[in-house]
Every structure is written in structure tokens, then in C-alpha cells.
Design a protein that fits this description.
globular, five-stranded parallel sheet, 3 domains, about 350 residues, single chain, alpha/beta, Rossmann fold
Length: about 350
């Protein structure tokens, strides 16, 4: 092991010795050094989402964070190449904001069940059904959907975005649970149109302020109130944290609900005897590695199958082979970028 690899191994081991097997750290340290050399050679920046596996998360990214954080970093970078260790809609967002730069996604299979739950035509149909009502689209969507929207949001700024529109009614897409959680927090009634024989239909014609969509994250929809009750029975003082993509029943039964960055901050700053984090598994490992003195309970039911396709080996090949290049048609890019930029300006 040469000095550079040894230094990388030591850095990773200091954080991850209780999370990642030593043999894996030794292998990944060699890959990380090779990636960092290529990063310099190609004038590249690597963005790593909070859901990345720990060995990758704590070694090669120049910046880590949630969708909003990384959108800002993508908008500010002066590098020629952006490697996005996340999923496709995140890499698309980087391309929207950097049309002249090369954006690479290490895995062709890094999709998203939530992004796939709605199409641009669905948004156009909703706008026809509710003419004049502004559209807020969660950043977890593809570029053509963002292009049909007035503004994007993340889980951390969703309420601020809705408030910024100063509208009596808002279409909020596509996450059913995030929309319901926002509606509850803001004291608004939400309805969900459904697809009928003649297109979209609305059963509830009473007083409502938000129009939602039945899209869900395949990871967060799996957490239940029973999970929380089972853990509380054994650990009565546990602090339960949940992501707003969990069901309203789960977020209501939690002690705190917030974006990935907000959950990281909560664990860092609070003093609960134990913590249960209801979100993607790898992030739980990353929080545990960052807070070795904290007692993190494990309820790792599922790893996001899309995030899990992003490996260090594929990240190395992305830089070596210039793959997989993200392109967005210019007409869509301009409109979608406008929605994302409005979100970034709100913060």
C-alpha cells in the first residue's frame, strides 16, 4: 500500500471502522485514490447524495448533501465535468443549471420510483383540469415534468415554496405523502384527482387548497407506525426521525420529520439516549459514522435499489470512459431550469 493509498485508508478507517469491514476499506481506498487523480486530470467535481454507501460518501465527493444543497453546488461549480453520485433526476438537475458542462451519472440504472410516477402529459392534464392554478413540483422528478411546472421544491423548503406563490390553490406533485405532510403542517385540505375513463376526475369538489398526486417513494412508503411502536416498546426514550416522504401517520408518530440534512443536524445537536432514523439505509450508516458517540438503532428495512447502483467502481469508470452522459433537450432544459432556479432563489 503506497503512501497516498495508506492516507486514504487511514482517513476512511477513522470514520468507518465500525460501519464498513476493513477488507472493503482497503480495496475502496485504492479506488478512491485513482478516482481523485482522474478528477484532477479531467477538472471534475463529484457530488455525493446523503444516500450514497458510506465508503463512497466519506472518500471521493467534493460536496455531499441533500437535493437542495447539491443543486446549489451544481449551479456554482466552475469545473468542466460534474459527476453526480445520486440518481438520474439529480444529474438532470445539474445539467439544467450547467448546459455547457459535461454531466455524468455513474449508473445507467439509477432511476427513481417517485420520478417515474408522473409524466409531463399528466402535468398538462392537471393544468387543464385546474386552469390558472400554479404547479409546485418536487425536485424528485424528471426534466420534462419540471418544464411543465412553475417552481420546484425539496422536502426542506416545500412549505416556503408553497407560501411564496401566494395562491388560494396549489398543485403539488408528485409525492402523495410529502404533499399530505405539507398540507397538514400548513392547515390546508388536499385532494387527489384520479384517472377515469375520460381522463382525470375529481371526486371531492368541496373546499380545498392543494391538489396532489398518488406518487410514492418505494423506500419511505415501507415504514409503518407499527415499526415505531415496536421500537418504542423496547426503547421508550428513543428519538424517532422520519423523512417527509413517509406517510402522515408515520411522521405524526415521530419526534421529528425533516429533510435528510435536517435529520443529520437533529442527531448532531440533540442529546437523546437513542435515535431511530426512518429513511434510506445508507444514510443511517453515514449518520452513525459521523456521530460515533450516539446510539443509533437499526431498522434497515430497505436500501434504495436505484441509489445502490452507484458504486465507486462505476464512478471510476464514469471518469475513465466518460459515461453515462446526461443530456436534456434545450427547449425542455430552459423551461425546467427556470423552475429549479426559482426554487434555489427561495432557499
Amino acid at each position: 500500500m503506497n503512501a497516498e493509498v495508506q492516507a486514504m485508508y487511514d482517513k476512511m478507517r477513522a470514520k468507518l471502522e465500525k460501519v464498513v469491514p476493513d477488507v472493503e476499506l482497503r480495496i475502496k481506498a485504492e479506488i478512491a485514490v485513482e478516482i481523485n487523480a482522474l478528477k484532477v486530470e479531467r477538472n471534475a467535481v463529484i457530488l455525493g447524495h446523503n444516500y450514497m454507501e458510506p465508503a463512497l460518501f466519506y472518500s471521493i465527493p467534493d460536496f455531499v448533501g441533500d437535493s437542495l444543497d447539491l443543486s446549489r453546488k451544481a449551479a456554482q461549480t466552475d469545473k468542466d465535468v460534474i459527476v453526480f453520485c445520486g440518481v438520474r433526476f439529480m444529474a438532470e438537475t445539474a445539467k439544467l443549471l450547467n448546459p455547457t458542462k459535461t454531466v455524468l451519472l455513474p449508473s445507467e440504472k439509477a432511476g427513481c420510483s417517485l420520478a417515474a410516477s408522473i409524466t409531463a402529459q399528466d402535468v398538462r392534464d392537471l393544468k387543464a383540469l385546474f386552469p390558472g392554478v400554479p404547479v409546485v413540483t418536487y425536485v424528485n422528478t424528471y426534466a420534462d415534468v419540471k418544464a411543465e411546472s412553475d417552481i420546484c421544491c425539496t422536502s426542506s423548503n416545500a412549505m416556503a415554496v408553497v407560501e411564496s406563490l401566494k395562491s388560494d390553490k396549489v398543485i403539488f406533485l408528485p409525492d402523495e405523502y410529502l404533499a399530505a405532510n405539507v398540507a397538514r403542517e400548513m392547515g390546508k385540505k388536499i385532494i387527489y384527482p384520479k384517472k377515469g375513463k375520460n381522463g382525470l376526475e375529481v371526486d371531492d369538489t368541496g373546499d380545498y387548497q392543494m391538489i396532489g398526486w398518488r406518487g410514492r417513494c418505494e423506500v419511505h412508503e415501507k415504514f409503518t407506525v407499527n415499526d415505531i411502536q415496536t421500537v418504542r416498546a423496547q426503547f421508550p426514550e428513543v428519538a424517532v426521525l422520519s423523512h417527509p416522504e413517509c406517510s402522515p401517520d408515520v411522521t405524526a408518530a415521530s419526534d421529528f420529520s425533516g429533510s435528510t440534512n435536517a435529520m443529520i443536524k437533529f442527531v448532531k445537536e440533540s442529546t437523546a439516549p437513542q435515535y431511530l432514523v426512518l429513511t434510506e439505509c445508507a444514510m443511517g450508516d453515514n449518520i452513525a459514522a459521523a456521530n460515533p458517540e450516539k446510539d443509533m438503532l437499526r431498522l434497515c428495512m430497505v436500501r434504495c435499489p436505484h441509489m445502490n447502483t452507484i458504486t465507486m467502481e462505476d464512478t471510476l469508470n464514469a471518469l475513465k470512459l466518460n459515461r453515462y452522459v446526461i443530456d436534456v433537450p434545450e427547449e425542455i432544459r430552459v423551461r425546467a431550469a427556470r423552475s429549479v432556479q426559482r426554487m434555489i432563489e427561495i432557499g
